[in-house]
Amino acid sequence: MAGGLSSGAAGGAVPGGSMVRRILLGSQLRRLREACGVTREEAGYSIRASESKISRMELGRVSFKPRDVADLLTLYGVTDEAEREPLLGLARSSGQAGWWHSYSDVLPSWFQTYVGLEAAAERIGTYELQFVHGLLQTEDYAHAVMVSGHQGRLPKPEVDRRIALRLGRQKLLVSENAPHLHCVLDEAALRRSFGGRQVMDEQLRMLLEFSEYPNITLQIAAFASGGHVAESGAFTLLRFAEEELPDLVYLEQLTGALYLDKREEVAAYQRVLDRLTQETLDPGATRRLLTEIRQVL
After folding, report:
1. 151 falls within a domain
2. How many domains does the chain have?
3. Considering the entire predicted model, what is its pTM?
4. Distance of alpha carbon 294 from alpha carbon 153, whole angstroms
5. Where would I find the beta strands (DSSP E) of 129-283?
6. Which of these, 12, 216, 221, 271, is most buried using a 10 Å CB contact count?
7. Under a CB-based contact definition with an 8 Å cutoff, are residues 173 and 215 in contact?
């Protein structure tokens, strides 16, 4: 792995936009540097940059100039064109923005990071308490949630833009490289009405449809089951096919988000998701409860 990219990463073909490409490229450059015993200070000197700049590059926090990457590869002894080109391709494409960047006027910078990671994930595991997960919302339900959350203060054009972004994210579920989505919804999210009876009926009908997708596992944490292990609230666990990308836990807050990547923290949330899988309604029982809730709206 030290001299090459994992499957799907060559030539900038990695899904998820420039941020994910930078992380992949930075990780590869760090491995190459360490393999040949070059210090960050020496690497920085070779491209007329500081040691801290090399550190930021290796963490994927800055953009890459193809010339700098070419010079670093030479320093690290990577001279074979077949090995250099995938990395140079990532450098060239690392400045290309994902489709969601066109919504930067309504998309907080901290959430742009999440959308990029979501688009790159191989598996998405999530527990939702308050709302139906954004990837599974209908347009009318999303509108009702957004208007309620902002107490009607958002101008209509901004609401429309935010909804378009949310619907754009949903295309991920039917894309060629669609991830597997495992979503556990608390029954409270289904009983809490947004937009009235018709909107909720359509949302529940859509959840029934989503539950039949081969790449979606939908479960409900039912009231009848009592308490459960997800006492800390909603979370999303992202797993990636690329070995260079660590598993992440995403925790959304009112004005920002936390990204947890320490192995022990991720493992703790994985255990919670595993317990939820065992203790909540299985997909068949979930569909039956969704149908029952529709009947009493």
Report:
1. yes
2. 2
3. 0.79
4. 31
5. 180-186, 216-221, 235-239, 248-252, 257-260
6. 221
7. yes
